[in-house]
Amino acid sequence: MDDLTKKDLLIAQYQTPTNLEARIELHRRFSTAVQRWPEWVFNQLDLPPSVHILELGCGPGGLWAENLDRLPASWSVVLVDLSPGMIDQAQANLLPRCEQFTFAVADAGAIPFADNRFDAVIANHMLYHVADLKETLSEIRRVLKSSGALYAATNGSAHMRELDDLTPDFIDHMPAGSAVLSFTLQNGAAQLRPYFPTVEMRPFDDGLLVTEAAPLVNYQLSMTGSETKITAEQKKAFEDHIGQIFFQQDGVIKITKETGLFIAA
Questions:
Q1: Which has fewest Cβ within 10 Å: 125, 133, 138, 223?
Q2: Distance between CA 262 and CA 123 in Å, rounded?
Q3: Percentage of the residues of the chain whose pLDDT score is greater than 70
Q4: How far is CA 103 from CA 80, 82, 129, in A?
């Protein structure tokens, strides 16, 4: 797959928030974590009272929408996404405090801002999507101040591994861990160190205890785009298949989550 094709597929996948919302719903409803992910990530931001922050691949702005009441008035945040639809949704979600936010449609491999501008860059589950990781990390290093830090969230190779066994053969899907292989909790630090002398990984303790079929089915279909390719009968068969697994496992499906945050400075 060439870079242009990868970018085109990424834009199509995230043209609207629908696919992302299906994934968020599963984690939101069935997570075993003590804290919600956006709250936990926000807690890791060790920043002074007045800062300029860049978030790459911001999606619908969920990190900020869920922490608006905690956002210092002196923080200035620039939100960037490759998808115009995501930027539109982020603007709508952040309207109550929009004066603190600037929005831009842009590629993380060609960040449209000056050198040494930001005190922090956030890349929340997006570095494994970029066409050229080295190019993107070079760009992040360029726009960060010498004292700045990168906060980069990703998953591990064991993340959601049970989905492979749960998904029937007639659903075209990639192995659960394959989407993030280019930047994982296992290989991320080694890729960050050429750009940042200090790299720390903080794990997020979480898992899923799923008790309904439909959110699990919608999650898996959202990961592959299969919802536009399968028939209503196949989707119903998928739901029935998951229902049988629930019956065999006393109404609960346990799914591994392996997620964390790199802090690089």
A1: 138
A2: 10
A3: 86
A4: 6, 11, 20
d(CA 18, CA 87) in angstroms, rounded, equals 14
Of the candidates 142, 80, 151, 99, the residue with the CA atom closest to the CA atom of residue 117: 142
b/e per residue 156-190 (b: at least 16 CB within 10 A): bbebbbbbeebbeeebebeebbebbebbbbbebee
Return the residue matching tokens 């603007």.
Answer: 91
**Residue 220 half-sphere exposure toward CB, CA atoms < 13 A:** 27
105: left (phi over 0), alpha (psi -120 to 50) or beta: beta
- Angle of helix 213-224 relative to helix 18-30, nearest 10 degrees, comes to 140
Of the candidates 229, 185, 208, the one whose C-alpha atom is nearest the C-alpha of residue 23 is: 208
Give the CATH number of domain 3-160+175-205+258-264; options: 3.40.50.620, 3.30.300.20, 3.30.470.20, 3.40.50.150: 3.40.50.150
Q: What is the DSSP annotation of 82-127?
A: S-HHHHHHHHHHTGGGGGGEEEEE--TTS--S-TT-EEEEEEES-G
3-state SS of 160-206? CCCHHHHCCCCCCCCCCCHHHCCCCCCCHHHHHCCCCCCEEEEEECC
The per-residue pLDDT for range 42-97, each reduced to its tens digit, is: 999 999 989 999 999 999 999 999 999 999 999 999 999 999 999 999 999 998 77
CA distance 235 to 228: 11
